[in-house]
Design a protein that fits this description.
16 helices; mainly alpha
């Protein structure tokens, strides 16, 4: 075991906090990209914002694929790191970079040439079709840089190095504040590209972050050294990466699809109810950020301790992370419960009906946020053990077996009406937490781990 490695020895709480806080801050910073884009595009008009908004579901599905594969890299690297096998850490990292690079090129080409039919498929009208296609085409070439940074970020998380990725994201977000208006509106000799300018600005920042990340990996001074001769395709290894990564990709994709399906239920009601749902969904997306940060930190720590042969410590990580999620997110939920009305008023200040219904939605969801955290953290445990299929099945059960059918039945077949959709969220959180916790306490995750190459 590596002497002085706080991830496999020492105080578990310190290890969790040192990993989780920078990851949470990085996730918060990454959400700033969308906010900055929306702010500047809003100066072009509602159609500009709508053009980009239509692209988000498709872009999210693409990001889900990359996110799943890079998570597999995190799991494999973390276990080799825990085993103190630096040669396999470097080899696994090199193979992961190679796979993600070629995957990103494929997705970039497909995205570019499929932009027009995809935008028509999601319902782009004539008034926004050209802008949405232009934005998506430019964004497609950015997949290459975006995925290269994602893989760097995931590999660093696998060995517990999370501060540098956070600083890189902070720098690129600040740069994006300047580049967005520059490329959207133009200045001097630089022409304005309108809606597509937001994508151009993102490509610049993504390219910078990707090159910095790859430079660090090739230089090998931060715990991982990738080499070109390790990138020769090892097909059994690549197959293993996809076997680990695709369930995670499907997990994330199913979340996007489930949220889309819930929106379809809500849109059958008045615009006030749709707006109230939108406010509640924003609050939920903010709560997910710390839950995911804690989950990713748990994945890295569990993976490293399993690699080090410290299954007892891996279980203690799971226990403590679960307790932190329950307490932290329950407290956050209670705060949101009591401040539900002023929060809703912040988003929609001049509509009493939306404020009332939005606050009701938040109050119904908020008490179950601790249980949402339980599911997310335990999914992190299962991912760290290489059981990404288990995490996927729990998420699909929560979203597609519980939440959506329940929302449909309660809103259409009971007197709850649209509030039935609100109640489907906490009930599905309870069900998912019970399933995840039951599997965790059964101990099956400790004996059914796949053999990683």
């Amino acid at each position: 075991m590596e002497k002085g490695n706080i991830h496999t020895e020492g105080k578990i709480l310190n290890a969790i906090l040192r990993l989780a806080f920078p990851i949470i801050m990085t996730n918060v910073l990454q959400t700033m990209y969308q906010l900055v884009d929306t702010f500047w595009l809003g100066r072009l008009g509602a159609n500009a914002v709508a053009s980009v908004s239509l692209s988000f579901p498709i872009l999210f599905l693409v990001v889900s694929l990359g996110g799943g594969l890079t998570l597999a890299g995190t799991v494999i690297v973390s276990q080799h790191k825990g085993a103190n096998d630096q040669r396999m850490v470097n080899y696994a990292a090199s193979q992961t970079v190679m796979v993600i690079f070629f995957t990103s090129i494929l997705l970039a080409v497909v995205g570019y040439y499929a932009a027009a039919p995809l935008m028509k498929l999601v319902g782009a009208g004539n008034e926004i079709l050209n802008d949405s296609v232009a934005y998506f085409k430019v964004s497609s070439w950015g997949f290459i840089f975006m995925f290269m940074f994602f893989v760097y970020q995931s590999l660093m998380r696998g060995i517990g190095n999370v501060m540098i990725p956070m600083y890189i994201v902070l720098g690129t977000v600040l740069l994006n504040l300047v580049l967005d208006p520059l490329f959207i509106f133009g200045y001097g000799a630089i022409p304005g590209y309108g809606v597509a300018g937001a994508a151009v600005a993102s490509i610049f920042t993504q390219a910078i972050s990707a090159f910095i990340g790859l430079f660090i990996l090739f230089r090998g001074k931060r715990g991982i050294k990738i080499k070109f001769f390790h990138m020769k395709p090892n097909f059994p290894w690549v197959k293993n990466l996809f076997a680990l990564g695709l369930p995670s990709s499907l997990d994330q994709s199913s979340r996007a699809a489930a949220m889309t399906a819930m929106v379809m239920l809500v849109t059958s009601y008045s615009s006030d109810i749709v707006a109230a749902y939108g406010v509640g969904a924003r609050i939920l997306s903010l709560v997910i950020v710390p839950a995911l940060g804690l989950s990713i930190a748990t994945t890295s720590l569990v993976g490293q301790n399993i690699g080090a042969g410290r299954m007892d410590r891996a279980e203690k990580v799971g226990d403590l992370s679960t307790l932190m999620a329950v307490i932290g997110l329950t407290v956050l939920g209670m705060l949101l419960f009591f401040f539900a009305e002023p929060l809703t008023r912040f988003f929609v200040p001049d509509d009493p009906e939306v404020i009332k219904e939005g606050a009701t939605f938040i109050k119904i969801m908020a008490p179950s946020f601790g249980l949402l955290g339980v599911q997310q953290v335990l999914n992190g445990v299962f991912n760290g053990a290489g059981l990404t299929k288990v995490s996927m099945l729990i998420s699909i059960c929560a979203l597609w077996v519980a939440r959506f059918p329940m929302a449909f039945m309660l809103s259409n077949k009971t007197d709850l009406n649209y509030e039935g959709i609100w109640w489907a969220f906490p009930v599905s959180n309870v069900i998912a937490a019970i399933i995840a916790f039951s599997y965790y306490k059964s101990g099956s995750w400790k004996v059914n781990q796949p053999q990683l190459l």
